[in-house]
Amino acid sequence: MYNLLMTDVLAELATLLNQSKWLAPTNYHDEMRAFLSKDKKNPEFVYPEFPTAELNELISQLEKEPSPTALSTNSTVAEIIRSRRQKELLLLSQLHLAENNETFTKISIELFGLAFLEAYLDSSKEDIDLPFSFASQENTSAEEARTTFLQTLEKYGLEGWTIQIVDTPDFRMRVKSNQKLMLINQETNWEFSDLDGTIAHEIEGHILRAANAHRQKDQLFQKPLPFYIKTEEGLASFLADYCSTSAELNRKYHSLKYYAGYLSLTSDFRTIFELFTSYGFTPENAFQRTFRLKRGLKNLEKPGLFAKEAVYYQGMLEVKKFLDEGGDVHKLYAGKVGLADLHYSPIPENQIIPERLLNYLKKK
Predict the structure, then answer these.
(1) Does pTM top 0.70 for this prediction?
(2) Residue 39 — very low, low, confident or very high, per pLDDT cuts 50/70/90?
(3) What secondary structure, in 3-state letters, does the chain show?
(4) Which one of 29, 173, 286, 347 is separated from 42 by 20 to 30 angstroms, measured CA to CA?
């Protein structure tokens, strides 16, 4: 098997293209204050300087490498290496072309497999109208949440995971599977989900799939396969949207993000911000959610979209369809893999599948 799906050049390129680094503005708080005080119609984020010369050298080296077929006689490995190359080059193009909103948006949509189909939009409009308000569901501190999450990991017999509380403005929770790390924003809020819904999404969605990947015998399947994000977030969202105590609130939230992503194709930052506030988001939360749909774009007075934030709802609908039509839940939980690539992944021994999902399937 070819080592971990990629060549040394691809591995170096993947490390350099770490999105969380290049898409984290250095002036987020300043721009939020100016925007919320109405000193600015739209924010002007400053991002870390992109290492263009270093990236160009890596691309040059990649172009000189043998084809994936030459690198491995195994057709599965060759196909995954080819897909990995495609994914990293799309990611490079997205970051490299951030000055052009239209091109950035087009590449971002391809990278995350986003599609604004009529059926998905109709479904999102129905779920947006669910009779629930975005108001605090919990009186739980970040430290209290951390304690509960650690107890959940212990229940599943998962060792070696760390949960840290951090001061980072652009997310509530984040799982870094390769590091066995979960991050909690110290200012986390509970307006979009309760504690149970968060456990369903973050632990029973993201962390359990990672734990099952770690149990794969073949290194090829211990790491995420390319283009897995839509299914990854879709499964985590499905667990929260249909199998948790705050299911309909979670679904309303994800549907609103999807619809806001659709409107972002023709709208500036402030228009999307005002959409979120019209549905009851606090100004700070509306700013954060709008930023996540617009992150990476340099000109926020013009339309544009960072597609990852909108893909949760679409992924959820696709995962629900897969399960409702009798799709193999064991394949779905084989590791970090997208629906289109489930046929590649073997089912690991001692696989963990959350009870709430098994209960959902029993009712079908």
Answers:
(1) yes
(2) confident
(3) CCHHHCCHHHHHHHHHCCHHHHCCCCCHHHHHHHHHCCCCCCCCCCCCCCCHHHHHHHHHHHHHCCCHHHHCCCHHHHHHHHHHHHHHHHHHHHHHCCCCHHHHHHHHHHHHCCCCCHHHHHHHHHHHCCCCCCCCCCCCCHHHHHHHHHHHHHHCCCCCCEEEEECCCCCCEEEEHHHCEEEEECCCCCCCCCHHHHHHHHHHHHHHHHHHHHCCCCHHHCCCCCCCHHHHHHHHHHHHHHCCCCHHHHHHHHHHHHHHHHHHCCCCHHHHHHHHHHCCCCHHHHHHHHHHHHCCCCCCCCCCCCHHHHHHHHHHHHHHHHHHCCCCHHHHCCCCCCHHHHHHCCCCCCCCCCHHHHHHHHCC
(4) 173
